[in-house]
Design a protein that fits this description.
Blueprint: H1 2-20, E1 21-26, E2 32-39, E3 43-58, E4 61-75, H2 81-92, E5 104-114, E6 125-133, E7 136-148, E8 152-162, E9 184-198
Length: about 200
């Protein structure tokens, strides 16, 4: 009888762990983060690499952390190598992301909750977490389409951040007057494709 009870306890514990606890590791090669920045007269877009990351599901709660390699910033729209390198150099400078000082940005996941409205099939959840850029942390939330099972986790999302909250001031109308057509909008748009797998 005691042996049967012990076996039952072990079995239940194992089942609970498998069903209610799951850890996913980001596949950096299949994941992608695209950016878009605009000013009055033009816009630029490109990519920045997700270096690594993990997320953990326990019962209905999610947590995790993702590292973004700021040294990997790339521009796609400028085909002239000289202008392309000039833009990337400027983005990496202290005018923008201070990459020499802050080579990594991080997103610390706080929660993933089911979307309240089921009308838009492209939106299944709301993601909330702390985004740290240049050593400055602000909480952000954004809608996403998320799918997950015991083996895989995928997320697709579009979201916007206000760069002035991370002290990125260059060309910002929030800090400077009379910029005219040289004003750069504070909003930076991101498109996220995230793929993660169990260990």
């Amino acid at each position: 009888m005691i042996r049967i009870f012990v076996f039952f306890v072990i079995l239940v514990s194992t089942i609970n762990f498998n069903v209610f606890s799951q850890e996913y590791i980001v596949d950096a090669k299949k994941s992608k983060l695209e950016w878009l920045g605009e000013k009055i007269s033009s816009k630029h877009y490109g990519t920045v690499d997700i270096k690594d990351g993990m997320l953990k599901k326990e019962v209905s709660n999610f947590s995790g952390i993702f590292n973004i390699d700021m040294t990997s910033i790339k521009n796609i729209d400028l085909k002239d190598p000289q202008y392309n390198n000039k833009l990337i150099g400027h983005l990496k400078s202290d005018d923008f992301f201070s990459v020499d000082k802050f080579q990594t940005a991080t997103f610390k996941l706080k929660s993933i909750k089911e979307a309240k409205s089921k009308k838009d099939a492209k939106i299944t959840h709301t993601v909330t977490g702390d985004l740290t850029i240049k050593g400055i942390t602000n909480e952000i939330s954004f809608p996403a389409k998320i799918k997950f099972n015991t083996n895989n986790f995928t997320a697709n999302a579009k979201f916007v951040i206000n760069r002035s909250k991370w002290d990125i001031r260059f060309g910002s109308g929030s800090f400077f007057d009379n910029l005219g057509d040289k004003m750069i909008y504070d909003d930076i748009q991101f498109t996220l494709t995230l793929v993660a797998n169990t260990k």
